[in-house]
Each structure stands twice: as C-alpha cells, then as structure tokens.
User: Fold these one by one.
Assistant:
Number 1:
Amino acid sequence: MCLLMIRSASAQTLAAPTDKVILTISGKISVTNSGDTAQFDRAALEAMGLMTIETNTPWYSGPQKFEGISLDKLMKSVGAKGDTVQAIALNDYTTEIPLEDFAKYNVILALKRNNEYMPIRDKGPLFIVYPYDSNPELRSQKFYSRSAWQVSKLIVR
C-alpha cells in the first residue's frame, strides 16, 4: 500500500524546463515545478502528446490545421481545481474561459499551424483553438473571444 502511494505521488511531478519557458500556469493547481507555478518549454508541451484540429477560423482564409496539447489534459497534468482559467497573452490581452470548455469542446493549446511552429507575429507561440467547425455554437463571438493567441500564462481560478 505504501509503495502504491509513493508511485502515485511521484507521478504527480513535472520536470523543470530545460529551454525557454513559453507557458506558466498558476493559481489553483496542485502540481508545480517552479515555486507555486508550473512552467513549460516547447519540448515539455510536445512530450505530452499533440492533437490535431482542422477547422475554419475568422482569422485565416480556408480551413487550417492546428496541432497542440489538449487543454483538458494539460489542466489535469497540473492538478487544476478551479472553475475558470484566465488566459494572458504576451500583449496583456486577457480572457476568461470556463474550465469545463476544455473537455466539453476538445480545445487545444496550439503550437503549430499547417505543420509550422507559429511565430509571435502570427499568433504564436501558443494559440487557444476550439474546433469551430465541429459545433455551430462554437462559431460565435463568445468562443472567438476565448481564443487568445500569443498565450504566455494561464491562471486557474
């Protein structure tokens, strides 16, 4: 029984980033790797496994292929226990997203668009993308405003 508890506890750790940090998660989380935050470099996010969404967006012409980490999976990896997530972009744009959106709509934190890493000047390095074509409800200003780009911080509230 003790061995099982030790394994469970060690499974709840995050490796420290070895490259430039592109995402910091804070707030109501139980798994951290830098003080009371969870920090990720690109390699750490990619190591979690990437999902692909192909969808039309209001920002690009025609369907686009986005690859990124499931935000539901990411929130579970940091032990998120809140109701909302505040996404903060490099330009200080902020948006509030219900935590339940991530599992309900299969939202991703995209690193790539059409097989290329997204530079800061084109919505990178991280972009919250809903599968807009999967549900007519998602093709509205309500969800478009939750789709922050140039994301650098997520605060679980």
Note: The first helix runs from residue 2 to 11.
Number 2:
Amino acid sequence: MLATPIVLLLSCLVAVYARPQGPGDATIVRYVSENTGIDGYNFEYETSDGVIRQEKGVLQNAGTDNEIMVVTGSVTWTDNEGTKHTINFTADQDGFKPVIA
C-alpha cells in the first residue's frame, strides 16, 4: 500500500523542518491531534521557535484496489536570517508534491 511510504516520508520532513534552528531546545506550545482510525487523521502543532506544522490524511476508495490515504499539509519556519518559509504539500496516488510558497 502506498500510504506507508508516504507517512514515512512525511515523518522525515517533520524531523528535518521541526528541529531547533538556534541555541536551546524548542518546546511545543500548541498541539492538536485527531486520529479517526483507518479513515484518516489530522494534526497540527506549533513550537516555541516558530515552526508551524499541519497535516491531514483522508482515506479514499476504501476497500478497493485503489485505496489510498491522501495527505495534505504544510510546514512553516523562519530561518536564521529571519526569512519565513512555507512548504505546502499533497501526497496521493501521483506521489509527493511539495509547493514552496
């Protein structure tokens, strides 16, 4: 099933973009998580260093040969020079599609 590689890839993105960028450790200042079972999930968080991450997965074509978890989301952070960056993404039957805003 394609959903497992997509979730793994997205987890790696979280690890890369949510890491602390400066001295000290970032802490989570807001966290919302909703696991709807096999039908999908939704989460978002914000850290003290300004990282904002949102993601939603929705199961489509359940019980068919074309079953897939379609994932949409974004990650926003500010670099060391003060420039804000955002990546919006979709992961579906056509692969992972990031869009840098």
Note: Helices lie at 3-17.
Number 3:
Amino acid sequence: MAQNSVFLPDQFLAQMREMLPSHLSFDDFVAACQRPLRRSIRVNTLKISVEAFLERVSPYHWQLTPVPWCEEGFWIERDSEDDLPLGSTAEHLSGLFYIQEASSMLPVAALFAEGNTPERVMDVAAAPGSKTTQIAARMENRGTILANEFSASRVKVLHANISRCGIHNVALTHFDGRVFGAALPEAFDAILLDAPCSGEGVVRKDPDALKNWSAESNREIAATQRELIDSAFHALRPGGTLVYSTCTLNRDENEEVCLWLKKQYPDAVEFLPLGDLFSSANDAVTPEGFLHVFPQIFDCEGFFVARLRKTRAIPPLPAPTFKVGNFPFTPLKGRDATQAEVAANKAGIVWNENLRLWQRDKEIWLFPVNIEPLIGKVRFSRIGIRLAEVHNKGYRWQHEAVIALADNENTFALTHQEAEEWYRGRDIYPEKGPSRDEVVVTYQGYPLGLAKKVGSRLKNSYPRELVRDGRLFTGNDRSA
C-alpha cells in the first residue's frame, strides 16, 4: 500500500513518544500514521440483515473483513479496476449501507454495551450522521434520538443521511451543545458526546490534519470539551450512560476531560470499563478502563472512547435564558387523523404506535411519541418525518416518508436502467405500466420514491437536491 505524505509536527511526535503505552512501538505508530486508511462500511440493519446484504453483494467480489466491535461493520477492499464510487452503488443510494470509518463505530458499541436499552438518546454533535444512524439501527427505529448539530451547514447533510437510511425516530436541533444541561436536565437515558477535537487521529485520511497543531490549541479545545461534558452530564438522568469520544490522541482532550468530570462530581460519576467490549479491546484499554486506540493497534483511525454512568442526581444548572418561541404544530386527531392514516395505508405507507400525527398548516408530520415531553423546552429544527401535504384532491406524500415507511403493497419494480433514470431525476417509460395511478417504485425490493402515472409514463418525484450525475450502478451490469 502506498505511503501518505503525512505532516507530523516534532512536538506532536515527542508528546506521542512520551505517552505511548510500553507495549506499543513508537516506530509502528509513525508507520501506521503514514499508511492510507482502510475503507469501511456499516450495514444498515433497519433495511437489510447482514446475512442478506452479504449475499446481495457477493457478485461484486468485494473483500469484506468484519470489524471486531461492530457486527454490522466491515473493512472493504475492491478490485482496482472497479472505479465506481461506493456512494454511487445501488446499495448505498437505497440506504442499505453507510460509509463509516471503523473507529467511529466504537462509541455506539460502547453506548449499547452490556445490554443497555435506552429509550431517549441524545447525540450532541451529530453531523454528518454516521453515529446517529448507527444508534437508530441499534434502537430499531423505536424510542427517540435528539440529534444536535451546531454547524448550520451540516444540519442539511445530517438530515439527508437520516432520510436515506429510512430513519423516523430522530428530532434535529441546531444549538451549541453547552445549552442542553440547563435546557433539558435529566432528560436522557443515554448520551453520546463525540466531542469536537484537534483530530490527531485522522491523519491517515487527511494528511494535513495537523498543519495547525499546537499543544496550546489542544488545551483550549479541552476547555470547551469540559464545558460540553458537564452540560451533557446534567442532561443525563441518574442511572443513565454517557459515552465521551474523540478522534484525537492526546491526554488533555481525552482522559483528562473525563477525570475532570469525576473530580467535579466524585459521588455521581462511575467509569464503566471497556476492556470486555470486544475480544481484543484490552489491547487499547487504559488503567481507567477507557479505550485509547492508537492507529497501529487495529489498523484504523486513532480514537478515544470512555463510558460513564451517572449514579445519582447532581445540583441543577441555572435555567436557560433563551426563548423557545411558539410551537407551530398541533396533534392531528379524530376523523382527520383516521382519514390521513387510511389514505397513507392505501398508498403503501404504514407506521407503528411509536409515531403520532401532527399538523402545521397544510403539512402532516409523524413525530416519535418519546420526544413529546421535550416540546416547548428547546427549539427543534425538525422532528420525525414529513408525511404529506394536504391539497384539495387529497394528500401529496413526501419522499422521506415513502423511503422510511413504505411496505410491500402498492409497489412497482423498476429495471436496472429505469432505476438509474430515476436517480437522475428523469421520468420512467415502462413497457407495461402499473394498474394504479400512484405507486411506490422499487429497485431490487427497496423503495426509491413515489411515482404518478401520467399516460404511458411514470412521473418522477425524486427530490431535485438528491438527483445524481455521473456514472451510477448500471454503468456495469452489477447483477452479473
């Protein structure tokens, strides 16, 4: 494998040499940093089982090596002549897998360790959505996830990934993560704080990641991380689990942040050791029971993961000063709710008791029931999924609802070529059209969207912002 031209500052190397555990070689560490990163994917079990996925992709001759800490995760090697981007494969477009670095699967594995079954989870720094979608899969789309992202530009990407994966139990917020301890005290069973960090572990993916590195900058970042973990700890209910993680390697941003929290609340913070998380976890475990993953240990990105339990309540923070504003939705009930549900079922869209109908003007939404106690306490960017727009002839079903909730009724299967045309935003002209005027079009058994029959064509409703250019999965006949 070719070497990366990775920039490693001398002071950084001196710091790593000093803190590297005695059983690890410094030369191996430097060599690992110089190697390009292995690619990895995670099967989206909300849509397909691991076994069915492996069977489905077996004709492609991908070499898939299991990731030890995630049953759905695999390192992937492909033939050098296979130049089709992974993101352009049919399986990715229909949400059957997520391209995710293997190390970043660790925090969610820790969150659900030892049979933990949280009902209300917060992902404090969620974009682009790899961990949120992994959490949703572990929760089987039940309960609810508050996925927060401070960067406005990244909220849109977060929503797109949630939608593609068929997830409907997420509420999105756009705040500085330091507000939640005051705004939502003791509201969550589990919290993931994958904290913004100096990124020392990502040099294999980004050779210039450490161009602006300095020990002083790391200490400044650690100060923010302490404020974030303190806020998250206040938002956690007693008995709940907090996972703190970073993709960096220095102690200031990792162990020291967790030890600081323990010092603040010595009777309320319990470190839950991760040495048994998977078979070789002890190779990366620290004396405190955290996982400090140097890149040579598992041949992946550098990473840090700590799991904590809140053993008792702590004094609350002052109440927040911001105004939430009026909530523009009202529950949809009675005849209107029944009428919408019957019409949706007829269109092939079904949902369970975990979701409830709400309305705003002409829009009908489905909110996860478990989020309702938080309404009015923070301002949401969006909750659940938009089901439909009401118009004088009935309902206009929304793409995200079709992707997440379509069943096997009222479907029309597209060919390879037709599916490619669909993703390019073009109308479909099947040889023999469907019998009904509105159908869920599918490819290889998975919904692509809703199409309306107009004469001999199927009118494409694929959202314009998702339309793809370039070579797609049918460039080579991938069913061969």
Note: The longest strand covers residues 236-246.
Number 4:
Amino acid sequence: MSVLSRMREDIANARSHDPAARSDVEIALAYSGLHAIWLYRIAHRWWISPGLRLPARLLSQFARFLTGVEIHPGARIGRRFFIDHGMGVVIGETTVIGDGVMLYHGVTLGGKSRGRGKRHPTLHDGVVVGAGAQVLGDIVLGARSVVGANAVVVKSAPPDSVLVGIPARDRRQDASPRAPETPSDEAWLDPGIYI
C-alpha cells in the first residue's frame, strides 16, 4: 500500500470514528492524533533501519512536542489505528497494536518492569480504550475488547471483554466462565500474531 493510499485510509477511518468531522481537509490539517500516527510511521521506519535509532527517537520526541502524543518508534501498530483527541496518550516501545484499534485521550499503554524484552501490552484487532485508561505490562487484550474510561488493566483478557474499574474486571453481560471449545480458542493469548 502506498503512503498516499495509507493516508487516505487514515482520513477515512478518522471520519468513520468521529461524527464531528466535517471534511477530509479538516481531518488532515487539524487532527493531532492523526499527525502523531503519521510521524510515528516515519520514526518507526527509521527505528528498524540500521544506524537510525537516535534520529527515530528525536523525531518521536518532536512529534510529542507538536501533538501531545508520545508513541515510541519501536512500537508496532497495525492499520486503521485512530487516536481521538490525542493529548496525553503514551504508547511504549514493545507495544503491539492490531488493526482497527481506537484510543481516546490520556491513555497509557505502558510497562510494569524495567527489564528488557516485551514489557508493554498487545491489543488485538478492534480494541477500544477509553479516556484516561491505563493498560500496563506484557498483557494481551483480545479482539473487540473495550476498556472503560480510567480503568487500570493489569491482566490479559479474552476477546469481546468489557474491562472497567481499578483494577479492571471483565463486566460482560454473560460473566459465566466457559471452557475453550477448541485449542485454537486460546490463540488470542499469543502476542506473536502481529509480529
């Protein structure tokens, strides 16, 4: 997919998520979350290129200054990612984000340890994280899960979870536990699917 096609997809995605969007031009010029994502993509390319990690970090800090959104260039982010309002969002180095994920302002996808290796969360496709929520540590949120505003998530959750509170708990309508139907039902726990 070309850079221009990806940018068009991002603008269309922003329009689909934000009923206040009036035009593609407005989205392209005035959406700081979108600007942060575009700058992240450049920084990420530099990050994975030999000898360009320092320039990648400097660009990510410049993007933070401009947008109020801090995305480490080492994070891996899928398509149709949207940050609504943006200010105060922090995405750590080993975070993995699937396709169609949406974050609101003040979200932290952070670590809990100082060790090297995977220490930030993995969000599968279609996850929505509410304003001010904290998702911490090397945990996995299954596809289509929703994290409520100001929740603090420190444990992995299966697909279609509704996570609220401190610490966050799953509040789905059907809270009864079920046994996996097949071994593949537990595949959501594998953060390597996006790597």
Note: The first helix runs from residue 3 to 17.
